[in-house]
Amino acid sequence: MYASKFWVWFLFLFLTLLWGFSYFFMKAGMEVYTPLQMASMRIAFAGVILLPWSLWHLTKVPKNKVLLLLVSGFFGNGIPAVLFCLALKGLDTNLAGILNALTPLWVLVIGVLFFGKQSNLQKTLGVLFGFVGVLILFLSKGEINLHNIELSLYIVLATLMYGLNINLVDSYLKEVPSLYIGTVSTLGIAVVYVTLLVVGIDNAFGTVSYHLIQWNERHVWFAIALGVLNTALSNVMFFQLLKISSASFASMITYIMPFVTIVIALFIGETIPKESLFCLALILIGVFLVRRAK
Fold it and tell me: 35: closest CA among 204, 236, 283?
């Protein structure tokens, strides 16, 4: 029992750390690459690193689940990867952090409306506590740039897809091992994005072509980190967390992610405002309530 609790919290905190750095990786990479290039390389690298396991596990997954896994790949990673890069090209990361915190709310709403999930006062309060904590945290900074507010719709759509995907996996893929879900779901989207990189395509987001990408640029390492750590590794870990906890609890990671930046600030000698600690208390209360909800 204690080992199970330890594993739940280990996965939760480690994923928070991984995904907390994802904004930095995307922003830094797009100093050189276009949003579609960055998203394509992210998924391509994830697909390459997981390819041996993806092909092996594809033969073991029940045939009636393969389509669901492919759909999960596009809703959980493929499309949101592009949407986040498009948004972060012009959005302040603070606003992006607030909007990403919509994920647990979408999980709750979509689960109740379309998947027959039951909610209760404790779980609802936990989600709302967490969202209020994140909202106060970023509003207190006074640094939110609303100049490109229309780009926020990209993240709203991405979080909606996250909410849909989490409910999809929790409802219909519970019996499929998390390693199978993480690898096979990545295979389908990797084929699409590798094709974009190799063949090349001109569109409104920029030209994607393998000979135009500066493969020797140091910025490519940000795409590699996003693909290997923030997509391939984190996918498998997240689906495992989803299986041993709950959809609402797993989605609460998006509430803790902003505090990764606070930890970084401590290491570089910046001071931490008192309101940040107050917001952290609200968020932790929210996580505790959702975790304890039946």
Answer: 204
The pLDDT, as a whole number, for residue 139 is 75
> Which tens digit of pLDDT belongs to each residue from 146-187?
556 678 889 989 999 999 999 999 999 988 999 999 999 999
- Measure Cα distances from 134 to 24, 34, 39, 208, 255 in Å: 18, 29, 26, 35, 6
pTM summary value: 0.84
Q: How far apart are CA 68 and CA 28, in angstroms?
A: 33
In 3D space, the residue among 47, 40, 146 whose CA is nearest the CA of residue 85 turns out to be 40
3 state DSSP class of 214: coil
Beta strands in 177-270 (DSSP E): 201-203, 206-208
| H-type alpha helices, 30-151 | 35-58, 63-73, 79-88, 93-100, 103-114, 121-141
Q: Specify the number of domains making up the chain.
A: 1
Structural domain harbouring 34: 2-292
CA dist 93 to 46, 98, 155, 267, 275, Å?
Answer: 24, 9, 11, 20, 19
